[in-house]
Specification:
The protein is an alpha/beta fold and 425 residues long. 26% of the residues lie in helices and 24% in strands.
Length: 425
């Protein structure tokens, strides 16, 4: 898990052409028209405009946040400093900058490579005083897994209680209102059964989770469903989207929530994620409303060995991450648009299907993935029927050089296991 204590140890999309789809016919004469649809919620990127030195101060809809957990910009992999290597594969920001006596060397690497990071609030005075490099500091990583770290080494840590985390975050906001606070949580916050085993309750489980999330301007939670050693019936891509669904209960509909996906072997036991599993997990968080992605690149093993940049040291993962990131960035204006109702999906063999409906760039968009759930934890090939908000026409399947028909308000298409199709019409 992404615990601070571990630290001491696209051409594919731009060529898509929209095909016209017929709108719903007008009502018969004498029948009053349907009431106008309520105004759409604001785009996700509008949320970022409040921070002049934050990750997207202009609210640019072409920016889709992609980060990596706790990396050293001055470190070197494959002959390239990490602060240069990560942007080359589409990772523009680091979450955290390792707090120890060598922090100043990491900061030097940050400035030299011109990378961008969230830093610990204890470095707030340094950030405010470094006027020449304001762009390199985009926010503050206030805490990691405070919900799980209330007790560490059999010692209770009151500074991890919800009220204490909120106070720390509010103090950081007051001193520097130009940058957001970021908090990553663990399974107590991010999984449906998180209340089981949650200890040292401050008010109630529900109130504690809401207080925790109120301390974060941007939040995430780590649960590694593909590689967890005790996965049980929760193995599969669906568990990543489930984290986003769960956090929405505590964080509300508007707060940016980032999907948290491993790139290696994140536990001392368990499995190592494969490229296809990684891709399925990333898209599942997106289909469930994630507004950014964070990669967890640390790996730990039973023999005590650890390595911290598995996204760069595993060539097959590097290639997959670069490919996925390019797709996400090409789709940024779509992913940053408000999610809308009006789309459902079902398969011919009971494999669950996640769907996402957007309107952007003068078109309607539907993203769909055959994923799974606790009853059907593994995906598989399926024929899927998707109900869409137009009656007939043609949809482009983006990046696949084909189209599908819309008939009687439905798209019918074939999916492979965990496959994602993006439809524009």
């Amino acid at each position: 898990m992404a615990r601070a204590r571990h630290l001491a140890l696209a051409a594919l999309l731009t060529a898509a052409t929209a095909c016209k789809a017929e709108a719903e016919p007008p009502p018969p004469q004498g029948v009053p028209p349907a009431p106008a649809r309520d105004a759409q919620p604001a785009p996700v990127v509008d949320y970022y405009k409040k921070w002049a030195n934050g990750p997207n101060p202009t609210g640019d809809p072409n920016v889709f946040p992609i980060t990596v957990w706790m990396q050293d910009p001055s470190g070197i992999e494959n002959g390239v400093k990490l602060g240069k290597a990560y942007p080359e594969i589409g990772i523009d920001v680091g979450l955290g900058l390792w707090e120890d006596e060598w922090w100043y060397l990491r900061r030097e690497g940050l400035i030299e490579t011109d990378w961008r990071v969230y830093v610990d609030p204890k470095r707030l005075d340094t950030v405010l005083g470094d006027k020449g490099h304001e762009r390199n500091y985009v926010g503050y990583l206030v805490a990691d897994e405070p919900d799980m770290n209330k007790v560490y080494g059999d010692v209770f840590h009151p500074e991890m209680q919800p009220s204490a985390i909120l106070a720390k975050s509010n103090d950081t906001r007051a001193k520097d209102p130009s940058r957001p606070t970021y908090i990553n949580f663990g399974v107590w916050m991010g999984t449906p059964g998180g209340s089981v085993g949650y200890g040292y309750v401050e008010k109630s489980y529900e109130e504690d989770m809401k207080t925790y999330c109120s301390a974060a301007d941007i939040a995430s939670a780590d649960y590694y469903g593909w590689t967890h050693p005790d996965r049980g019936d929760r193995v599969g891509a669906f568990s990543y989207g489930e984290v986003i669904d769960t956090m929405r209960k505590w964080c509300g509909p508007d707060k940016p929530l980032y999907g948290f996906v491993e790139t290696g072997h994140p536990h001392t036991h368990g499995e190592t994620i494969t490229p296809d599993q990684l891709e399925s997990a990333v898209w599942n968080t997106i289909l469930h409303g994630a507004t950014g992605i964070n990669y967890f690149a640390h790996s730990f093993y039973t023999d005590g060995k650890g390595e911290y940049s598995s996204v760069l040291t595993r060539p097959e993962i590097t290639a997959k991450v670069k490919e996925v990131n390019a797709k996400l960035k090409a789709l940024a204006p779509v992913l940053n648009a408000p999610s809308l109702p009006g789309v459902t999906a079902k398969s011919d063999n009971d494999i669950p299907v996640s769907v996402l409906h957007k309107e952007a760039q003068g078109a309607k968009w539907v993203l769909a993935q055959t994923d799974g759930n606790t009853k059907v934890p593994r995906s598989g090939a399926a024929r899927v029927e998707i109900t869409v908000p137009v009656q007939s026409g043609t949809a482009t399947v983006v990046g696949e050089d084909r189209t599908v028909s819309i008939e009687n308000g439905k798209i019918v298409d074939d999916f492979g296991p965990y496959q994602v199709h993006v439809y524009r019409f």
